[in-house]
Known about the structure:
This protein is an alpha+beta fold. It has three helices and four strands. Belongs to the CutA family.
Amino acid sequence: xxxxxxxxxxxxxxxxxxxxxxxxxxxxxxxxxxxxxxxxxxxxxxxxxxxxxxxxxxxxxxxxxxxxxxxxxxxxxxxxxxxxxxxxxxxxxxxxxxxxxxxx
Length: 104
C-alpha cells in the first residue's frame, strides 16, 4: 500500500488534495505546513510549502502520480512513492473501497 509524498505551495495544496480525492485516486490526503529550503536555478530558496501525504492503492498509484504532475504548478514537483509495509486491516479495507481504478 503506497503513500505518495508531494510538496506544493500553500495556495495550490488544498485544490490538489481535493482533486486527488474527488477523482478517487487517493482515499485521503493529509496536509502539513512546512518550510522548505532548496536549490532551484542555481539559487537557494526558502519558502512556505505544504507536504501532502496521499494514501492510495498499488493499482492507482501510477495514475495518481501522473495526475499530480499534470495539476501541479511547479515545473518539477516533488512526487515520491513510499510503500507502507503494514496497516490495520480496517484501514486497508477502507482505503481499497475509497480508491477506484479500472479494476474496481
